[in-house]
Amino acid sequence: MALSVVIGAQWGDEGKGKIIDYLSATSDYVIRFHGGNNAGHTVINKFGKFALHLVPSGIFHPKTKVIIGNGVIIDLQVLLEEIEMLKKCKIKLENKLFISPRCHLIMPYHKLLDSLYEKAKGKNKTGTTGRGIGPTYSDKVSYNGIRMVDLIDRKSFSEKLKVQLLIKNKILKTLGAKQLSQKNIEKIFSNYREKIKSHVREPFSLIQNAIKNKQNILLEGAQGTLLDNDWGTYPFVTGSTTLTGGINAGAGIPVNKIDNIIGITKAYTTRVGEGPFPTELSNEVGKKLRTVGGEFGATTGRPRRCGWLDIELLKFACYINEFTQLAITKLDVLDSFPEIKICTHYTLGGKKVNYFDGDTSFLSKIKPIYKTLKGWNKPTKGITKYKDLPLPAKQYLKEIEELTKVKIKYISTGPKRDEIIKI
Ligand code: IMP
């Protein structure tokens, strides 16, 4: 397998956790390189059902080491809760979970600012997960962040926090929010420091050696291509680079070391939060997709918006990420649909247009053009061999391959680890 990257090809929630869990069985390292606990990767295995927000999904495999790379932002309360939960399930973490000292911390004021910004934007809000993601990344970029390395050094943490509270309390006051106390935050974070410090270690040489020794490395993308801060549907995006290239800045790995880039897409499309969604179905079909697919956020529990598969967007994701293979998830959700539509392209005023031609208001004007395919009306749930799929399901998958020109390598037919077809 060598060095593989898993990237969401849509607006997140593509089922990356399941594919990563499956692939990490043969991985020496699983590394996260961006995002924070806005991600929620659901993993079902012999230990139970888990929604992991920060710890890379490879943690369940006894020989796999996991790294939270420097591009990830960390809410220590959430990370420590996750660590506790894993320890309760007797999952070993010592010498197995490494956290980069360069990771920025999500501070209490970041979460407050996230909700205050949303409130101020009113009906134009982004619909964030409320986890403080945008404000933490903006502090990182404007050199106001507090990092894991600062937490470990009590004096540095105290000094940096003092400056930040001077600024942040002024903003909070202006926006009518409560003031934060240095003493309280320091007390809470002192406790965090003791619990987390054994895991904080610069992973750069660990990763370099693993690459040199041709060990198997899996990079775990979070969110999805269309939530990328630059190439997504801005401002309805997240704060990080969600694309393949993000592994360079977010984990210190040169992109030319990559062997496989696996794009994950559902067999249909979903989105949480606000923003354009050309193939959204605000009708009974959309409702059925949500119910059958269990489309409620793993992080916030919000109902997801649902629609048909959008090939125009998938083609863009294939190109910008240079996917070498695709994994199609939740094929079984389509089992009971008499017909299945696939959006092949967009038009505007009768002319063919592309996703990247315009901004969000442009995307709300374009017309998605569909091709209708026959449904299979047969259960595919749990199928593990391609030859056992009904013919119309095979035709649907062929159509996706032909339109995107990328080979489908994995087809997920249920939430469990072994409900998967490998081609
Ligand atoms: P934030 O990342 O919490 O700032 O939210 C920004 C946008 O990204 C919102 O539309 C969220 O719903 C969306 N988002 C963030 N993380 C995820 C995810 O893991 N899956 C799906 N959507 C997400």
TrEMBL record:
Keywords in alphabetical order: Cytoplasm, GTP-binding, Ligase, Magnesium, Metal-binding, Nucleotide-binding, Purine biosynthesis
Protein name as catalogued: Adenylosuccinate synthetase
Where's the active site on this chain? 13, 41
Q: Which organism is it from?
A: Candidatus Nomurabacteria bacterium GW2011_GWA1_37_20
Q: Name one GO cellular component term.
A: cytoplasm
State where Mg(2+) binds: 13, 40
Stated role: Plays an important role in the de novo pathway of purine nucleotide biosynthesis. Catalyzes the first committed step in the biosynthesis of AMP from IMP.
InterPro entries attached here?
Adenylosuccin_syn_GTP-bd (IPR018220), Adenylosuccinate_synth_dom1 (IPR042109), Adenylosuccinate_synth_dom2 (IPR042110), Adenylosuccinate_synth_dom3 (IPR042111), Adenylosuccinate_synthetase (IPR001114), P-loop_NTPase (IPR027417)
Give the gene symbol: purA
Among the GO biological process terms of this entry, one is: 'de novo' AMP biosynthetic process
Instruction: Write out the catalysed reaction.
Output: IMP + L-aspartate + GTP = N(6)-(1,2-dicarboxyethyl)-AMP + GDP + phosphate + 2 H(+)
